[in-house]
Protein 1
Amino acid sequence: MSKIAQNPFEIAQAQLDKAAKLLNLDEGTHQALREPLRELVVSLPVRMDDGKVKVFKGFRVQYNDARGACKGGIRFHPEETIDTVRALSAWMTWKTAVVDVPLGGGKGGIICNPKEMSQGELERLSRAYIRQVGRILGEKMDSPAPDVYTNAQIMAWMVDEYYWMNGENQFGMITGKPIALGGSLGRHDATARGGVYCVREAAKKLGLDNKSATYAIQGFGNAGQYAAVLHQEILGGGKLVAVSDSRGGIYNAAGLDPQAIVDHKLKTGAVSGFPGAKAITNDELLVLDVDLLYPAALEQVITGANANDIKAKVVCELANGPTTPEADEILLKNGVFVIPDFLANAGGVTVSYFEMVQNHYNYHWDIESVYERLDKKMTEAFTGVYAMLEERKADSIDMRTAAYLVAVSRVAEAMKLRGWV
Ligand code: NAD
């Protein structure tokens, strides 16, 4: 969550407005989809290691559950805002709908700086959040997951606190848990894997040769590192020419070895200084002459200021909200094919859904079954969105709008069938 220029919730609403117009959505349904159904704002008193009590602020936003229980991560961040959480909960609603899993969208957050907290303080904060928010959570109501600065250990504390509150092990109330506590195999790389499956399908449609295609990745955390490696593994080739993280980027026109950079970052804490590569800035990375660009770090990095300089043929948005609406228009005009965030990064929530299914019937799948089912879901989702793009050729829409049309009509249909609108 960087210093972002535009309010993300206003962006999410503007994107919905565009889709509502194209769908001729009735005014009542449109208005009902513009706002979250429920928001809970909580105060969390936590005893810190120095013996004093510090009060944190937390949120849980349940944007829409017409298609099933809300689903969405919990973020721990010093600059967390309710509007960021609202925007992300809206995007989760469209994400679960576009991959057609029977879930809705939600998101949570706590304003805190986990880098300055001990493990004990983090555990007490995580448990305090569940004591407050647990009353609206559950596998049939709302099931959170890890997100920015939260992880499997935090999910373990949270599912345990829920157990003490309710007296039962309801593992599906939260996902992204450790494997030993009901987590699913394949969750760790699911986001990147789903994005690469989308790239594979896009290449087929666009006639791009995956073996010779060059690619660059902004961000080298969970999503970026796995994308770097899986791109070559799944597509059977491709040349990685640049990657970056918060400390800057590296470039080598002759190609970089993804696994060697992962090892280098593990050893040194950054991608910079990788042997044989030239240093570049994050801004330079975005406008490199590559076939494929994966933004996998921050929001609003492709803007009106640099969109005209983007040379990639395909942008696969692993990050949430990396492209502003102004940039979208420029990219569409310039013929850049954008695989939008809530489709490109939906692999994570899809495997989270698989985790809930496995928890529910108390039987765990092997890794091959997870990959096979993820591939099927992502391929179907991409194909459905691409079909919408073709169907709406006369409206000159981009893939983001096509994905909105698919997702919004599914949520609107569920709301209508239930008699909500
Ligand atoms: P992460 O924290 O593991 O990694 C983030 C990376 O971005 C790090 O390498 C960091 O150094 C880098 N970064 C930070 N500031 C930067 C800057 N100014 N310039 C360039 N790089 C910078 O996070 P992640 O889980 O990989 O998530 C990355 C993006 O993908 C986020 O937008 C997240 O919401 C989205 N996403 C992730 C998942 C998932 O399952 N991990 C699922 C859906 C969406």
Protein 2
Amino acid sequence: MDYENILLNIEDGIAIVTINRPKALNALNAATMNELKAAFTRIQEDPNVKCAIITGSGEKAFIAGADINQFPGMNAVMGAEFALHGQDVLNQIQFGSKLVVAAVNGFALGGGCETAMACHVRFAADNAKFGQPEVSLGIIPGYGGTQRLARLVGAGRALELCLTGDVIKAEEAHRIGLVNKVYPQAELLDKAKEFCQKVMSKGPKATEFVLYCVNRGMEMNLYDALRLEAQHFGIVCATEDMQEGTNAFLEKRPAKFSGK
Ligand code: CO8
């Protein structure tokens, strides 16, 4: 597929997906969402891609939200369909089997904050700003903001942000647990790549199962989630990587994982 609104570069097993509408501060229109879906289908299916980073073009914005030009004239059915389609794209990111890191290089507002929250790990540049400003437009978050924000930072803080539309700086986002780390803008992408490389050096099946157990387990009661973990522990014991990783430790040598 030819992309017009995103860039997809694959380097050393890492897919770098750049939202590329800098004149609109990388706002997400319908075409961009379709391209994001196509890109993540490719990422999921391509065995040469081990993980992905999402970032924004330019130094000002990660994603300044859904494209507001789409809203006037939208009826109830269109609104629900738009929200469901966007949620579907972001679910594909969160529930895929490959690590996805958000490198938040500026404004992450509305759908931008929601995209970052669908990623497994969030690194922010020191100029990044986060918020769910939808109420200022007379709408509510529709790409998962009311749900993922509450799960990440707790209902009280999520309500504060979603009810006021306040925009917070990277340091505050870090303090409340919305982002994992804050870096100078110039270092952000390299730090995200370093993190991906570290994860790629581990057992690939183990990585996949950690993502699955955390993502799915968070939505289950503790008892069932622990069962899910035990089942995956059992499956991982059947892999060559389990033999290799444990033998390598005992033989005091680095492990060479095959992904089998
Ligand atoms: N949509 C469309 N265009 C945008 C958006 C956007 N979200 N954000 C910025 N732009 C455009 C501006 O219109 C402007 O275009 P132009 O140069 O043609 O006038 C250009 O980007 C630059 O923006 P500004 O001049 O406003 O730049 P500032 O530095 O002055 O301000 C801000 C930067 C603070 C980020 C400001 O642009 C802003 O407030 N943007 C809107 C932020 C926002 O409200 N985001 C939430 C949108 S709603 C949403 O995300 C809902 C998601 C779920 C939808 C579910 C159903 C579809």
